[in-house]
Each structure stands twice: as C-alpha cells, then as structure tokens.
C-alpha cells in the first residue's frame, strides 16, 4: 500500500519514481533518521499488464501508464516523427521495458572516467552492479546475489530463439551465455529482470519492502513543475529549497532540508531544470523564463540507439505472435504463468541477444541484436502484422555519433518537451546500420533457419544495394528506447557543456543533483536499465557521504 500523506518538509525529495528514483527512495530511507519523499507523476504499479511480461504490448498503447512521446520531424529519417514510449508509473520505464539485462561494455565506463569523471571506471562501478543484483545463477566475479534486482534466465524460451543461436554460431559468431561476464561478444539468450516468470521492475525490487518505512513518503499522481530556488546571487549559486508540484489539480510546495534529486528521466529531468531557470540562457528567455543559472549543456548531448528490423515470414507454427494457436492457447498460458511462472506469457518479446562486430577490425562489439520469435512492426502496435508466423531481428548501432537535443516548447509544465533526436546526422551512423542489416541477413541465411525461413518481409528481397538498405533505414528505423545524455556528467573545468559533476551535483546550484539516465556522458553499448540502476546505487552512497 502506498502512503499518500505528504509532510511540508523532508530531508530529501526525489522527483520521478522510475529506475533511478526507486533505488534512491530505498537507499536514502535506509537511515531511519532521515525523511524522504518520492514524487511520481504517474500512478502506482498495480495494473496486471505491468507484471505479466507479455503485457508490454498493451503498455505500448496505454495513455495512462506510458507518456507516449514523439520526436519532432527527423530530418535524416525522411521527416518522420518517431514514437518514444516512456513509463509513467512507479517503476517508470522499468515497469514497461523489455526486461533485457545487459550492462554495456567495460570500456564504456572507462571512457567516462577518462573524460574526468573520477570514480566511474568499470572497476569503480562493477561493485554497484553487483550490489543491485540478485543473480539466479549465483555469485561470481561479475555477479552479485541478495540485491534487490532479480536477474533470471528464461523459463520458457521459444525453440526459434535456440535456432537463432545455432544460426549465429554457423555464421561465425561465438556463443555467449553471459553478456555481462568477461566477454561481451557473441550470440545467446538474454538474461531478464524477472522473478518466477513475472516482471521485476525497480519498483518491485526497491520499493517492495521500503514502502512500509515510516520515513519514506511515496506520492503518486504528483507532477513536479519546478525546483524552488532560493538565494540567487549568493556565493555557490542559488540553493534548491524544494519542489513545486501539482496533485489532484492543486499546486503544492514541498521543502527539502538537504537536497532535491531529479530522477525524471532523460527527457523530463532537463525539462524540469529548464522550467526552473537552469539551462541555456537565451533559450529560457525566448520562453519567458528568467535564467537563474546559465547552463548551456542542459538538454543537449541527446543520444539514443536507433534500430532497424529484419523480419521473415515463418514456415512452422512456432511463432510467439498473435497466431491462432497462441490466441486459443491464451487461457492455458495464463494458467501456466499464475500456477508455475511458466509459459508463453513470460515472454518479454526479445529473447535472443547478440553483440557483434560489424567488421573484424572493430576493437569491441559495435552492433547489438535483439531476436524476437514473432513478426514485429511499429513497436508491436501493428497487431495485424503479428498475426502471421515469423521472426524478427532488431539491430542497432551501439555507439552512435549523432547528437540531438531536448528543448522547451513553452513554459507550461504540462507541455511535452521538444525532442530532436537528430538520428543519422553523422554519416558514419547510417553506414553502420547498413552493415548491421547485412550481418543479420548472414545469420538468417545460415542452415539452422532452413526449416523456418520464409520470405523476407523487411527490408524485403528487392533491397540489395547499400543505397536501398540505407533508404530502408531512413524510412523504417525506430528507437530501441535508450535516450541518455541530456544532463551530461563532466568536469566543469574541461567541459563547458557538463551539467553535473562526478558527484552528480548540478553546476552552480547548491543542494540539487540529477540522478538518472540523463547523466551518462556517452551512451553505453547495451541496454540502459541496469546502468541507470547502477548510477542510482552509486549516487545514494555519494549523497549519504555528503
Ligand atoms: C519500451 C521500453 C523498452 C525498454 N527495454 C529495455 C530493456 O529491455 N532493457 C533495458 O536495460 N532497458 C530498457 N529500456 C530502457 C530503460 O528502461 C531506461 O533506460 C530506464 O528505465 C531509464 O530510467 P530513468 O530512471 O532514467 O527514467 P524512467 O525509468 O523513465 O523514470 C522517470 C520517472 O519520472 C517520472 N516523471 C517524469 N516527469 C516527472 C515530473 N515532472 N514529476 C514527477 N514525476 C515525473 C516518470 O513518470 C517516470 O516514472 C526500455 C525502455 C522502454 C521505454
């Protein structure tokens, strides 16, 4: 049961109850002498489709539990506006994501440290990945047990995913049974943030026991409008004294004795900073907001994994889509899930993973694959397309060079920010996507798929030249949901575009941090939920030590 009583003042205010916010709410309230309030715009995570992994399809369409952002027209993608789902509930995007558990490559974190971020090398952050984790396979040098985040193997994987792994090996890639172990490269099954076949979100893992603590207030339906700044003009800059938020049509002010922490995600943390007068001065003035702290990097440096799919029709009735046998088997699937945590409803959509090099000369994997034992189009919103037999592969460029930005449309806190992902603005990114399609085609052409491979539905057999594949990318690529970087961590001495320092403190403001996916200086080469949880685990120690 979520407590909804809100005091007027607490020690720490955490804005946003997503992957990072849930970790902070738990870790900071471990000390019974401090008070913590978690403000979440969305509702509690009670809807059954959150917990049943296959419910993700429904969440994609939900207007209550999914913010359903859209980018602006993307210049290099034929002017298309891309659909950007984000979770709007306790657990945030961890309550609607695909549950794939990967951390990226160790060198991603070493690069953060090399940019002047002390304490963020892989050796520094590995203990936080392990502290968060409850690994079903037991402890090891790379894995932890007993942490709040359950990491499991699939309980009922599709035979098509085994075929994918066999085909990947036939195409020359090593089999890998742990993408978070000593080697990232290869093909294999994902591990997932599930327990007993059900989703294990950050809310499940971190708020479960903490919900009952007297010193933790969790307030849902609370939309933060701005950070309350006091003492502008003082040495060290203004102080974050609290948060102004709206709940049930009323405007409230909650004050913070120690700190305000923004964990509203890579789109809304920078939006909140800008609404509070912290951001690029001219941009704020153009919307009638008086700049309190001129921070040019707020909202800049947006990075995401752009993704394109190769889809085949299937020959055998093995698909996990909306096929007649799966629809008829729905009640049996529900029984299996509820009684034994088994069956097709435990399916997260993407069972097979691959980290590949687009060419042998690449030092580390530069492409990621997500294999799906179903025909997928338009984020699973095209249900008619899913009705046939088939299988799909996502491929994305792990380290894109294109950079976008988040800006304000206006100063109304209820307005969505403007998202210019600026995908493919760097020409190397398009070339990488074309190489990715070619690698996927090699895997799908391998003998293991002979009994299942029907015609290629996307890009389609007519697309053979590099230019035809590039045009397919422009017309059909979509996000694989990993926006980061819009409140970049960096050294203020070296980087004028840094927004937070390596303690995640906002430059020029006292008592204010950003802790979520937006602080990543560069996008990690993998999925972003576990890295965001790691960031919040580490931040909780930094805050406690302050
Ligand atoms: C569809 C989808 C699939 C994904 N699949 C995977 C996957 O399989 N594996 C993986 O590792 N990653 C995946 N990701 C990405 C991963 O889930 C995110 O990177 C991660 O959850 C980001 O965490 P966060 O804390 O930065 O933001 P979020 O978890 O998005 O949390 C932000 C929270 O802040 C709240 N909020 C926003 N504005 C306000 C405001 N003004 N006031 C109060 N509250 C506010 C939001 O409602 C939300 O709850 C996926 C994401 C999506 C959307």
Structure explained in plain terms:
The chain has about 550 residues and is α/β, with parallel strands linked by helices. It contains 14 helices and 24 strands. The strands form seven sheets. Strands 1, 2, 10, 11, 12, 13 and 24 form a seven-stranded mixed β-sheet that branches. Strands 7, 16, 17, 18, 19, 22 and 23 form a seven-stranded antiparallel β-sheet that branches. A two-stranded antiparallel sheet has the order 3-4. Helix 9 (about 280-285) links the parallel strand 14 and strand 15. Helix 1 (about 20-30) packs parallel to helix 14, helix 5 crosses helix 14 and helix 12 (about 425-445) crosses helix 13. The relative contact order is 0.19. The structure holds flavin-adenine dinucleotide. Flavin-adenine dinucleotide binds next to helix 1, strand 11, helix 8 and helix 14.
Question: Which key phrases capture this entry?
Answer:
7-stranded mixed beta sheet; 14 helices; 7-stranded antiparallel beta sheet; 546 residues; Cholesterol Oxidase, domain 2; binds flavin-adenine dinucleotide; FAD/NAD(P)-binding domain; alpha/beta
């Amino acid at each position: 049961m979520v407590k909804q009583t809100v005091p007027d003042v607490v020690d720490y205010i955490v804005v946003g109850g997503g992957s990072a916010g849930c970790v902070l709410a738990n870790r900071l309230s471990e000390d019974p002498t401090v008070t913590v309030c978690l403000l979440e715009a969305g509702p509690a995570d009670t809807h059954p489709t959150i917990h049943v992994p296959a419910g993700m399809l429904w969440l994609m369409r939900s207007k209550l539990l999914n913010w359903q952002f859209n980018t602006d027209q993307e210049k290099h993608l034929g002017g298309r506006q891309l659909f950007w789902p984000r979770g709007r509930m306790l657990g945030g995007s961890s309550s609607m994501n695909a549950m794939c558990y990967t951390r990226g490559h160790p060198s991603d974190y070493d690069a953060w440290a090399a940019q002047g971020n002390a304490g963020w090398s892989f050796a520094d952050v590995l203990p936080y990945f392990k502290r968060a984790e409850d690994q079903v396979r037991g402890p090891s040098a790379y894995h932890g047990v007993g942490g709040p985040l359950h990491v499991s193997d699939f309980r009922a994987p599709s035979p098509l995913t085994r075929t994918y792994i066999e085909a990947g090996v036939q195409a020359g890639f090593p089999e890998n049974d742990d993408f978070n172990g000593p080697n990232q490269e290869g093909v294999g099954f994902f591990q997932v943030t599930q327990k007993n076949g059900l989703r294990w979100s950050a809310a499940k893992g971190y708020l479960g026991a903490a919900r009952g603590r007297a010193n933790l207030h969790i307030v849902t339906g609370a939309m933060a409008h701005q950070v309350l700044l006091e003492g502008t003009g003082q040495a060290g800059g203004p102080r974050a004294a609290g948060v102004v938020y709206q709940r049930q049509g009323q405007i409230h002010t909650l004050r913070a004795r120690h700190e305000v922490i923004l964990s509203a995600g890579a789109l809304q943390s920078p939006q909140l900073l800008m609404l509070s007068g912290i951001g690029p001065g001219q941009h704020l003035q153009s919307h009638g907001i008086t700049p309190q702290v001129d921070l040019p990097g707020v909202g800049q440096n947006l990075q995401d994994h752009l993704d394109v799919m190769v889809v085949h029709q299937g020959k055998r009735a093995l698909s996990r889509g909306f096929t007649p046998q799966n629809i008829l088997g729905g009640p049996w699937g529900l029984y299996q899930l509820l009684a034994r945590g088994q069956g097709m409803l435990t399916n997260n959509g993407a069972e097979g993973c691959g980290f590949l090099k687009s060419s042998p000369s690449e030092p580390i994997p530069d492409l990621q694959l997500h294999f799906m034992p179903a025909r997928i189009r338009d984020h699973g919103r095209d249900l008619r397309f899913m009705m046939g037999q088939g299988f799909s592969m996502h491929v994305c460029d792990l380290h894109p060079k294109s950079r976008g930005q988040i800006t304000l449309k206006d100063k109304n806190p209820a307005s969505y920010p403007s998202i210019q992902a600026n995908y493919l603005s760097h020409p190397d990114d398009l070339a990488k996507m074309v190489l990715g399609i070619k690698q996927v085609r090699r895997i799908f052409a391998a003998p293991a798929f002979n009994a299942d491979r029907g015609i290629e539905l996307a890009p389609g057999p007519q697309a053979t030249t590099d230019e035809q594949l590039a045009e397919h990318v422009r017309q059909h690529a979509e996000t694989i949901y990993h926006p980061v970087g819009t409140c970049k961590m960096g050294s203020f001495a070296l980087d004028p575009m840094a927004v937070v320092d390596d303690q995640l403190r906002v430059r020029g403001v006292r008592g204010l941090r950003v802790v979520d996916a937006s602080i990543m200086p560069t996008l990690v080469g993998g999925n972003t939920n576990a890295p965001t949880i790691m960031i919040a685990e580490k931040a909780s120690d930094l805050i406690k030590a302050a």
